[in-house]
Each structure stands twice: as C-alpha cells, then as structure tokens.
Design goal:
Layout: H1 2-39, E1 41-48, E2 59-64, E3 70-75, E4 81-86, E5 92-97, E6 104-108, E7 113-117, E8 123-125, E9 128-130, E10 137-140, E11 143-147, H2 159-164, E12 169-171, E13 177-179, E14 186-189, E15 192-193, H3 197-201, E16 208-214, E17 228-233, E18 239-250, E19 254-266, E20 269-285, E21 288-294, E22 297-325, E23 328-353, E24 356-383, E25 388-411, E26 414-438, E27 443-462, E28 470-488, E29 492-509, E30 517-534, E31 537-548, H4 552-555, E32 559-563, E33 566-569, E34 577-588, E35 591-610, E36 618-638, E37 644-656, E38 658-661, E39 664-667, E40 672-682, E41 688-696, E42 699-701, E43 704-706, E44 709-720, E45 725-732, E46 740-746, E47 749-755, E48 761-769
Parallel strand pairs: 1-7, 14-17, 33-36
Antiparallel strand pairs: 1-4, 2-3, 2-5, 5-6, 8-9, 10-11, 11-16, 12-13, 14-15, 16-17, 18-19, 18-48, 19-20, 20-22, 21-22, 21-47, 22-23, 23-24, 24-25, 25-26, 26-27, 27-28, 28-29, 29-30, 30-31, 31-34, 32-33, 34-35, 35-36, 36-37, 37-40, 38-39, 40-41, 41-44, 42-43, 43-46, 44-45, 45-48, 46-47
Length: 790
C-alpha cells in the first residue's frame, strides 16, 4: 500500500512539473515573440535631388552589411519619404536606386532618420550626353502622374501642347482641352484652384515638375463630377525671375499672344506678377438643318451660316506670400481679366414645307460681349507640430457680363431689325478650413469645411416679340463638410472619405412670380480608393459619388435671339445630376490601363422643342433626362527607343441612353473610340521634332451621334543660350479634319450641324527667360466650381 501511495505521489509531482514547465515554455515563447515584435524598429527618411526636390517611386532596399543578403525593401512616396522595418539590430546598408540617378549606398542602423540626396546620372561619350530616363507616366492610388521635369514634355512649345500629351486628355472642336468622357477638368496649380485660364497659359512647361490627372477625385475635392488636373511647379533658389513670350498664329486670319512674368523670392518673401494680352481672330462655318415633324408634314430650316470672331483679352495676376516663421505662411493674390468679344455671323436661311420653299431669309447677326472678372484670394497655413497642420483660405469673385446683339433680317422685300441687351452680375464669397493630422508614418486623417455664397442678377430686353424680357435674382448657399482617412504601407494603401453638402438655391423672377423656385438639397458623397503596389506593378480600385450642378447660364431665364424661327432659353427648373463612378487602374513599367463604370441620374443635356405659342419656332434649351451609364477603357504605352520617344494612348467609351423620337425609342449607344500617337525625335544639335496624331470615330455624345474627326500636328523646337531662349514653329490640323459633324433626334426634331472653327494654323513661338528661377505662389483657393459655372 505504501509503495502504491508513493507511486501515486511521484506521478502527481511529475504531472505538476510537466504542467509548470509547459506554462513556462508558453510564457517564454509569448515573451520571446513580444520581444521580437518590440525589437522591430524602423528606418525612415526622405529622398531628394540636388535641388532638394523630393523624388518619388525610388527603390529603397535594406541589405545586411556582412553577407549583402536582402532584408526588406520599399518605394518612396510622392513626397520622397520612405519607411523600412527590421527585427534585429545589425549593421545594414541602405541602397537607393532610381533610373536617371546614381545609385546611393550608405551605412545605417535601426531607428535612424535621414535625408538622401541623389545625383543625376550623366555619362559623356564623344561630346554626346547620355542620360537615363524614368517612365514618363505612372499610376498611383487612382491617379495618373505625368513626369514633366527632365523629360521631353518640358520642351513642348505651350501648355496646350503639354496637356495634349497627357494620356486621356484630348482636344475639342473649339480647341479647348477635355478629359476623354469626363469633359473639361478642374485645374489646380500647387494645390490652388485656378479661376483664370490665362494663368495656365502663362506657365512655362520647363517650370513644371509633374501633372497629376485624377479621374475619380475623393472627398477633399468639391463634389462636382469633374476630373482634376493638378500642376506642380518647380521651386528654385532665391533671386529674380522673368519670362517674356510671344507667339504669332496664321490661319485664315492672324492671331497673336504676348506675356510677361516677373518674380522675386528671398528667404521668407515671394512675389510674382504676370500680364498677358491675347488678340484672337478666326473664321467659322456652321451649316445646319432642322426638320420639324408635325403630323404628315415636315417643316425644315436649312441654314448656311459662316462668321468671324475677334477677341481681345487682358489678363493679370499678382501674388505675394510671406513666411511668418518656419511653420507659418500667409499670402494674398489678385487675378482677373477683361475680355471683349465681337462676332459677326452671316446666314442664308431657307424655310420649307415638305421640301417646297416657303421663305428665304438673309440674316446678319452682330454680337458684342464684354466680360470682366476680379478674384481675390487669401490664405494662412500653420504647421502646429510634425503631426498637425491647418490651412485657412478665403476668396471673393466678381464677374460682370454685358451683352448686345443686333440682328438684321431681309425676307423677300421686307426687312426686320432685332436688338437685344443684357447685363449680368455675380458675386461669390467662399471660405475653407482644412485640418490634417498624421498619427504616424502610415495613418493620417484630414477633415474640414467650406462655405460658398453666390449672389447674381440679370436683365435682358429684346425688341423681338418671341423673346420675352427677363429680370431675375439668383442666390445660392452651399455648406460642405468632409473627412478623409489615409493609410499607406509599403505594399498597400487605402483612402476613404465622406463629404456632406447642404445646398440652398433661390431663383426669383421679378417679372413673373410664378417662375420663382426655391430648392434645398442635402447629399452625402462617399469615396474610397484601395491601392496595391509591389515591384513594378501598381493597382488601384476606387469608388466615388458626384454631383453636377447646372451652370448659371443654363439656369438663367434669359432668352437669346437667333432668327425668326429659333431662339435659345435657359431652364431654371434644371436639377443637379448625381453620378456614381467605379474605377480600376493598373500599371506595369511603361504600360497603364484603366477601366471604369459610370452611372448618372438626371443627366443635363442639350435639347430642342417646338414653342407652344408658335409651332414654327424652335426653342433650344437644356433638360434633365432619366439616366445614362457608361463603360470606359483607357490604355497608354510609352517607351523610349534611342532618340525616338513614342507614346500611344487609346480610349473607348460605351454609353447607354434611351430617349424617344416621334413616340419611338431611340438608343444613343454608339461606341466612342479615340487614339493618340504622340512622337518626338531628338535630331542633331538638340533639335526636337514632334508629330501628334489624334483620331476619334465620333460616337454618341448625349443625344447626338458624331462623325469621325482627326488632327495631325507637326512642330520643331530649339533651345539656345543655355536654355534661356526657346523657339518653335508648328503646324496644327494640317489636313483640316478637326470639325464636328452632329446628327441628333430630339422629340420630333431632326437636327444636323457641322461645327468648323478653322483650327488649322501655322505658328511661331519665342520665349526668353531672364534666368531659370521659378517663383511660385504657395496659396490655394476656396472657390470650388462656381466660377466655372459662370
């Protein structure tokens, strides 16, 4: 019995011993793992060039100093910063490489923070300088970044030529630039919203660092459904700067543009001023046919119209900012323009019934318009700490428009004269407050608010009996709140935001009270971007919701007389359009691909209808339609082959829209396809020959189908006197194929038109820099999209 008892006691002790050992082992393993986790430390830093400009997308690799074994790696962010983690404290070597720069090796230890300066790579071979080149286009977190600095894009003659080289940006029939499938973008220069397009034209491509195209903007941007083009300029050392430029363009008529930019920057003070003058003249041809189906009859208006336009525009901007301390910047800016536009149109109109001529008219339309804009912007930036920063922005805009029109019509033996006069004034007040907080190198949070108030009024009087007088007052108030969270790691990135907008609109008709409209909208706009970046691959998936508000002219009750059978009218009852966009972007080395789906409710489109009072009169206006959705694809390939720098961009848009024509369903589903081949050749003595070809099959745009059009441009550029003097000659639209031929079916009206604005021309441009220093205004703007809606 004693032996049995002793055996049981020993077994019990052995079990207790094993249990204690197991607990100790578990505790030891847990403690060890925690120690390993706690031991893991970081190496942070920033990568810049010799001019202290941050370098993005540089490869950063941590190597074991003893055996050169790979430990970890990452890619520098947009601001040049990077972060690496390692678990053991050893001697390491930090290797930083970037195409076009000498690879940098340096010893480092965990817990260090350092700045690495990269030296540009240059190898001299028989009087020829050979430099390596980074990819010109890169996708990152839903944005396409175009590198201008150090590339051939910096040698483009003008900003218009530079924009045309950005994948997805194409030229319209009037010569303006738009993002394929998204319309005219919103421009930013150094995070400041541009209100005056002349400010962009006054920029020099050589002073541009990069341009970021955001086709799916997040919560920090205005909820207007437009793409964003962010321009970042180079910043040099202290000193004076100056740029004089002049260009002359010859088409069927002569145009010219002159500009002067001066600036001074020293330590804390930065001042810049720009003045430019544009004298633009051109001819236009705009034949059109309108057929009204009324029962068994077809009334038709056949117009053969041509005209000429003269525009004189003075624009300016003056900016001053001062660095109160290392963490505070304050500034103010005044810009604006005065633009006088005169247009003469000569029209021969045949009015027919079932192809039988009823009336012939000879019409002379003389149009004068004077527009002035003044914009004052003030800002105050504060970096309270390494983690917390704030910015306050205030804007005031005054816009005035005076319009006079004189129409002479000769019908058979009778003559008619119609005069119209209008005057409109708009004032915009805006403030914006933004707060940014960085929890650590991975996590950050931004939030803020902006408030806009618009007050406008307009008066129109006309001697025509079909155009009624108008006298109105319009007010808008918009309050927006947003919050945006960002997470960035070596491979993964995530941005999520939410924007709330409360919008009040009052339209008061001082002639007819029944036309008064009061509207209130409250909308939430979520956005999200998920990114994955590893090696040479980059992917992102994004989603956002947007709103597109009608322009002030579209909402105006003003009428514009064309002829006795046609006039234009605004529509104060237009509703905003709500859009939802999902987008996928992927890139590998020199290949960039994107695909998106867009759904828009209550889309605003150009429309026509027959007047109830006078069935022979057609009213041109804008209306809301049910919904439209798109599928879009974009592809860009860019690869340098010796002295040949080719870029190929292609895009496809498949719309889905249904309307009715004479009680039958019409599908506006024609695919729109475009391709751009932009090629540059480096010739002897550093001459650059550029060839640009743009083709579009037309496709469906709104209620209209467009026939194919194309453009072919050639330019030759040369820089002299150490890049101070730039000269270029170019020929644009050499085959005269850049014209819109439209065909639309609207309710019971069949409309066809050709818009030929004679965009073909030959031009010479000369630019001279006082030096290579660039002074930039460091402010931003709180006026979101209201000025563009004017």
């Amino acid at each position: 019995m004693l032996l049995i008892a002793m055996h049981r006691i020993l077994n019990r002790l052995l079990l207790e011993y094993k249990y204690i050992k197991m607990k100790q082992l578990v505790f030891f393993l847990f403690f060890s793992s925690q120690c390993l986790i706690n031991i893991a430390q970081t190496i942070t830093g920033k990568i810049t060039d010799e001019n202290h400009n941050p370098l993005s997308f540089a490869n950063v690799v941590l190597i074991n100093a003893k055996d050169s074994a790979f430990v970890t790696g990452t890619v520098s962010k947009e601001d040049g910063t990077f972060l690496l983690q390692a678990s053991t404290n050893k001697d390491y070597i930090l290797k930083v490489s970037l195409v076009g720069y000498v690879t940098n090796y340096s010893k480092c230890k965990l817990g260090e923070a350092r700045t690495i300066v990269m030296i540009q790579q240059s190898e001299l071979l028989k009087d020829v300088v050979v430099k390596a080149e980074r990819p010109m286009f890169q996708q990152r977190d839903g944005s396409l970044i175009t590198r201008v600095e150090g590339s051939l894009l910096s040698r483009k003659p003008s900003m218009e030529d530079l924009f045309a080289s950005i994948p997805g940006v194409v030229r319209t029939s009037t010569g303006t630039m738009e993002v394929f499938g998204l319309g005219e973008p919103v421009y930013y220069i150094n995070n400041r919203k541009v209100q005056n397009q002349s400010e962009i034209q006054n920029l020099d491509p050589k002073n541009i660092k990069n341009i970021e195209l955001i086709t799916n903007p997040g919560a920090r941007y205005d909820a207007e459904g437009k793409a964003v083009l962010k321009i970042t300029t180079l910043e040099r050392e202290d000193g004076y700067t100056g740029l004089i430029k002049s260009s002359a363009t010859l088409s069927e008529r002569f145009s010219h543009n002159e500009g002067l930019t001066i600036g001074y920057k020293k330590k804390k003070l930065s001042v810049s001023a720009t003045y430019s003058f544009l004298g633009f003249s051109n001819k236009m041809f705009q034949p059109q046919t309108k057929e009204i189906y009324s029962g068994q009859n077809i009334y038709s208006e056949v117009l053969d119209q041509q005209g000429r336009q003269d525009q004189k525009s003075h624009s300016w901007d003056l900016g001053l900012d001062y660095q109160l301390s290392a963490k505070q910047i304050i500034g103010i800016k005044w810009d604006g323009f005065i633009r006088r536009n005169e247009e003469w149109r000569y029209t021969q109109l045949d009015y027919k019934l079932n192809e039988a001529l009823l009336e012939h008219s000879d019409i002379s339309n003389n149009y004068h318009n004077c527009t002035s804009m003044h914009h004052v912007n003030a800002f105050y930036y504060v970096d309270w700490s390494k983690k917390l920063s704030t910015q306050f922005i205030a804007d005031y805009v005054n816009n005035q428009n005076k319009y006079n029109q004189f129409v002479d019509e000769i019908v058979s033996d009778s003559a008619f004269n119609t005069t119209s006069h209008s005057h409109g004034t708009f004032n915009i007040y805006a403030v914006k407050q933004t707060i940014d907080y960085k929890f650590d190198s991975h996590h950050s949070l931004s939030w803020g608010l902006d408030y806009n108030q618009v007050k406008g009024s307009g008066i129109l009087n006309s001697s025509s009996s079909i155009v009624s007088a108008s006298d109105y007052i319009q007010k808008e108030n918009k309050l927006a709140l947003f919050v945006e969270y960002s997470y960035n790691h070596d491979i993964w990135s995530f941005i999520s935001g939410l924007r709330y907008e409360m919008y009040h609109s009052d339209y008061k008709d001082k002639i007819e009270e029944k036309n008064n409209i009061h509207r209130i909208y409250n909308n939430l706009f979520p956005s999200m971007t998920l990114g994955y970046h590893k090696g040479l691959w980059s992917h992102s998936l994004s989603f956002s919701s947007k709103i597109t508000r009608p322009t002030f002219r579209q909402l105006s009750n003003n009428n514009y007389y064309s002829d006795e059978f046609t006039y234009q009218q605004g529509n104060p009852r237009l509703k905003p359009s709500i859009s939802y966009l999902a987008q996928w972007q992927s890139s590998y080395r020199f290949i960039n691909l994107s695909a998106s789906y867009n759904y828009t409710k209550d889309i605003t489109l150009f429309d026509m209808y027959v007047s109830e009072n006078k069935p022979q009169v057609i009213v041109s206006t804008y209306n809301n339609f049910g919904h439209i959705h798109y599928l879009k694809l974009n592809l860009n390939i860019q690869k340098k082959i010796g002295n040949w720098h080719p870029t190929l961009s292609m895009g496809l848009s498949q719309p889905f829209l249904k309307t009715s024509f004479r009680d039958e369903t019409i599908h506006h589903n024609k695919v729109q396809f475009y391709t751009v081949a932009d090629q540059s050749f480096i010739l002897l003595k550093d001459y650059i020959l550029s060839a640009y070809y743009y083709y579009c099959n037309g496709g469906a745009i709104g209620l209209f189908s467009i026939k194919p059009y194309q453009e072919f441009n050639l330019s030759l550029t040369k820089s002299l006197f150490h890049n101070r003097l730039d000269m270029s000659i170019s020929g644009n639209d050499l085959f005269h194929k850049m014209k819109y031929r439209e065909n639309g079916y609207l309710t019971n009206i069949h409309f066809t038109q050709t818009e030929d604005y004679r965009l073909w021309n030959y031009s010479i441009s000369i630019k001279y820099k006082f030096n290579n220093i660039k002074t930039k205004f460091r402010g931003a703007s709180a006026v979101n999209n209201e000025i563009n809606r004017l």
